[in-house]
Amino acid sequence: MVSSISQEVLLASQRAINFLIPSLKDRIPITWRTIPLPFLYYFPFFLMAYLTRRPDTYLIRILLLPITLCGIVAAAYRFVWTPPELNVYNWGQCLLAAVTLAKSVEYALAEEGILKVGETRPGQLKGKEKEGSNGHAGSVVHRGLSFVPPAIYDAVEVMHTLRGLQWKFGQG
Q1: Using one digit for the tens of pLDDT, what is the confidence trace for 101-130?
Q2: Phi, psi of 120 (to 5 degrees)
Q3: Cα→Cα distances 123→57, 94, 112, 137, Å
Q4: C-beta separation of 137 from 127 below 8 A
């Protein structure tokens, strides 16, 4: 009985891995028609970046993590560039997957979210930073493009930052 259960678990895990990472002959070649498909798998990553800049979303981010990781791995290994001169893009696609996998884990496990320098919670400044230099409330600083909603701007900004300038994780 025990060996059959362990064999079932082994077979199920092997099928799950083969579903995410198909063999070379079963991969989908990237063409003009199929190029949007890998980007759809990154939607949970964008949602995770959005949630990391919203307060009290820790549990949602933890629950979203397995879907995000599976989607990124599937986007990296399910699609392949077939022309020989474009083979380097396969490498870049997997490198992007490695970076976004690490960022997804970081976003999910940061309990308070990804904070900017001077924030106590996402979007909320500490006590002294709230006031202007003369003791009056400071003006609100709007960053980015005026037609992009601030929440989407925050998500895109946190997705594209690597060094952490102006972010709490970038401080020594």
Answers
A1: 999 999 999 998 888 888 778 877 877 655
A2: -95, -35
A3: 13, 33, 11, 16
A4: no
Compute φ and ψ for 167, nearest 5 degrees. -120, 150
Structure-block tokens of residue 120: 């106590």
**In the chain, which ranges are E strands?**
28-29, 79-80, 119-121, 124-125
Q: CB under 8 Å to 158, separation ≥6 — which residues?
A: 49, 52, 53, 107, 114, 167
- Strand partners for 49: none
DSSP 133: T
Tens of pLDDT, residue by residue over 14-32, are 999 998 899 989 999 999 9
Distance CA 167, CA 127 (A): 18
Collapsed DSSP state (helix, strand, coil) of residue 75: helix
pLDDT digits (tens, 9 = 90+) for 56-89: 999 999 999 999 999 999 999 999 999 989 989 9
* Burial of residue 83, with CB atoms counted within 10 A of its CB: 0-12 exposed, 13-18 middle, 19 or more buried: exposed
Q: Looking at residues 26-51, what average pLDDT do you find?
A: 94
Asked if 79 and 93 touch (Cβ cutoff 8 Å), the reply is yes
